[in-house]
C-alpha cells in the first residue's frame, strides 16, 4: 500500500484547520486515514507554538516504513529537522510568457526608433 503523510482539511468556510495524517494515497483528501500524527492551524502567527504540532516519533516510524510526505508536510518536517532540506529552484517561474515577451520587444523597438529619430534631428 502506498502511504502518504499529508494534510486533511477541517473547519468551516474561511476558517481552516488541518490534521496531519498518514493515509493511503488512493483515498480522498478528507477520507479515511491510518493514523493522525498532528495538527496545523494556518490562522495562527508563524512563530506561535500551537501552529504546527507533530508527533515526531510516529512520523519517523512512518518514514521508516516508506511513507512519503507531501510538499507542504515535508516543509514542516524540514523546519523541525526530521528531513534534510531540498533545493527548490525553478528558474523559469519568474520569466514572462510568450505574449508578454513579444510586447516587451515591440515596446523596445518603438523606444529605439524614437531615440534614433531624436538623435537624427
Walkthrough of the structure:
By secondary structure, this protein is α+β, with helices and mostly antiparallel strands. The protein has a domain at 3-80: Ribosomal protein S16 (S16 Ribosomal Protein, Chain: A), CATH 3.30.1320.10. It is built from 3 helices and 5 strands; from the N terminus they run ββββαβαα. The chain has helices at residues 56-64, 71-80, 98-120, and strands at 3-12, 15-24, 35-40, 52-54, 68-69. It has a 5-stranded mixed sheet with strand order 4-3-2-1-5. The radius of gyration is 24 Å and the shape is elongated. The mean pLDDT is 90.
Tally the helices: what do you get? 3
CATH architecture heading of the domain at 3-80: 2-Layer Sandwich
| SSE ordering | EEEEHEHH
Major sheet description = 5 strands, mixed
What structural class do helix, strand and pairing data support? alpha+beta
The mean pLDDT is: 90
GO molecular function: structural constituent of ribosome
Organism: Tranquillimonas rosea
Keywords: Ribonucleoprotein, Ribosomal protein
Biased composition (Low complexity): 111-121
